[in-house]
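Record type: ASSEMBLY
Status: queued
Input:
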Amino acid sequence: MKIESITIIGGYGKSGLPEPVREVELRRGEIVSIVGPTGSGKTTLINDIEMFASGDTPTKRKILVNGGGVPEEIRSSPHINPIARITQHTTFLSDLPVYDFLSIHAMIRQDGDERLVKRTLDLANQLSGENIVPNIRMTELSGGQTRALLIADAVVIGNTPVVLIDEVENTGIYKDRALKILRECQKMLIFVTHDPLIALSSDLRIVMRNGAMVKVVRTTEDEKAVLQEVKRLDDILSELRENIRLGNPIGLKKVVT
Ligand SMILES: Nc1ncnc2c1ncn2[C@@H]1O[C@H](COP(=O)(O)OP(=O)(O)O)[C@@H](O)[C@H]1O
Ligand SMILES: [Mg+2]
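Status: finished
Output:
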């Protein structure tokens, strides 16, 4: 199933009035951020996308695929679902070793190609600051390792064209590198985020308020210039975090360079 675009047709906000943004088209290869205060409807919007709403959810939004109705093959075959979703609250029902978990998923999605398991682990280890070994149990992974593994799993084994990431905290993930690698994969990535680095690395951001899409902002050249500064600050903070974690003393001089 090739997805070149997903179109969100606006519905109604919490006030019951039509939402200001009537239509947004998201294209393959784009990174999109959904921003807005808590309770403004960010999760609800990605729920609509995930379930290909057709005016049948409380928001009355409609989701189009490649500019038209949702192909029947998507609705009728959950195992070819083109959308993967990664959430904050991941609890594994299985304490299988990582390798076995990935092998089983590869068997279901891709006839058990062993190379995919290896590629998934390689990608996860490029995303995560903490190395994941194949025989560690899923339940023993740290938060950062779990998210890196789930993103890699969605991209490589799931091979889904669309990945939704809902307020996933980014500690333990090389954000900048992750965004670069994921962009190269030509997926459509939709983040719910408050992280300036991710928001400004996106091609566009959808601004939510009171349950409605109120604005779509395309990242401007000026904002991309700000991104360079944000990356520098983010690196400083990451290094600080790492040093605190290792119990190293923190010196002012080192921080401000
Ligand atoms: N367009 C809407 N119409 C009616 N209820 C909505 C709408 N958008 C969001 N809600 C409701 O508002 C609450 C908060 O939305 P949520 O998506 O969880 O916000 P956020 O993820 O931004 O914190 C939820 O109970 C949700 O069902
Ligand atoms: Mg939410």
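Annotation: The chain has a mean pLDDT of 88.
Annotation: The CA atoms of residues 58 and 146 lie 32 Å apart.
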